[in-house]
Amino acid sequence: MERVLLMAVHHQNQTLERFQSSLDELQALTKTAGGVVAGIVTQKRERLHPGTYFGAGKLDELAELVEQEEPLLVISNDELSPGQLKNISNHIGVRVIDRSQLILDIFATRAHTREGKLQVELAQMQYLLPRLYGQGTEMSRLGAGIGTRGPGETKLETDRRHIRRRIDEIKHQLKAVVSHRSRYRERRKANQAFQIALVGYTNAGKSTIFNRLTGNDSLEQDQLFATLDPMTRRMRLPSGFQTLLTDTVGFIQDLPTALIAAFRSTLEEVTEADFIIHMVNSAHPDHEQQQATVLKLLKDLEADHLPILTVYNKADLLTEDFIASAHPYLQISAFKEEDRRLVMEKVQEMIQETSEFYDTIVPATGGRLLDKLTQETIMTKRTYNEALDAYEVSGYVLPDHPLSHQLKGKNEA
């Protein structure tokens, strides 16, 4: 475990709660990256010092703490300019990184797919390129310690031309991977699969509910960004209606711009969805801000027009009455089976509201059509009529589903 000091400015327009929540998150990010927080230095300022982030007196206080605690690293809560990084590091004598670099570092350890690794490497290079000036060789390499890790054995050299060439290479490789992903998505669309995206702030419990709804065993940890690569699995709703559920990377406030750009294709899973389940950690003191961060990102992705069910998770950890700020919503604990069933029933009810009613007769020999109706529509009635030697079937079908035209034709007949 690496000893780390944190530095943070309490901005004038921030409430004390908002600042504390941001600081708690920085500590959680540090722990996730394998660091131990040995001390925190904060200062309330109207604006960040353009050259040194802190004022001169507070910077001296930080330097004294560095001498006492002997950390390997200092992490800033705000994104720092190349000049600020260099000036602070020179003044205190240890390596300095900022929140963005810390998040990139965690992503580097979490990426498992080829696309994930390429995207992290691209984001790191784009982020570090303007920050190489004056950092010294040991600081400009990826390899050992928090804020220096990268996928595989990649080393980041100070030669800018080499980095720019590598950025172009990665972009070229990513194009191929992204086009493969979009072909796969088109195939899913062609198969008329109803797609549900599971979104939420990091550590809201998405993987926990995803695993239990789909019978999957992806990583579940009480850590930030436990899931990085999106995963899609089948989920059957109570009526038998089959959907595809995608677990996405956790959102976070102040996500590095380079990372949003690099992970665009991963987050596109959300834009391709037909329905969104937004998981919120209701037990978190700053859950409203976290909820707002996710909604803003959905708006940026132009996915805010999709039907959204807000699921306030971790109800078992609540110590006081909870007031929901989003509708429709459910309040659950993802570990409880009856709560998970409520989620599936509510999703089905919301899909039904946007669907068209059908009432049809299927001959006893029409087994394939019956299966299709069970899996691709929300079937509410299925009874066998002996006199007709057929099934009387009714339910709800999505307006743009091919079965919709078939069923309309039968009803009119």
From TrEMBL:
Function statement: GTPase that associates with the 50S ribosomal subunit and may have a role during protein synthesis or ribosome biogenesis.
CDD domains this protein is in? HflX
Q: Which residues form a coiled coil?
A: none
Where found in the cell?
Cytoplasm
Q: Which SUPFAM superfamilies match?
A: P-loop containing nucleoside triphosphate hydrolases
Supply the name of the protein: GTPase HflX
Query: One matching Pfam family, short form?
Result: GTP-bdg_N
- Superkingdom, natural source: Bacteria
Q: Check the record and name the HAMAP family matching this protein.
A: GTPase_HflX
Q: Give every Hflx-type G domain span.
A: 194-355
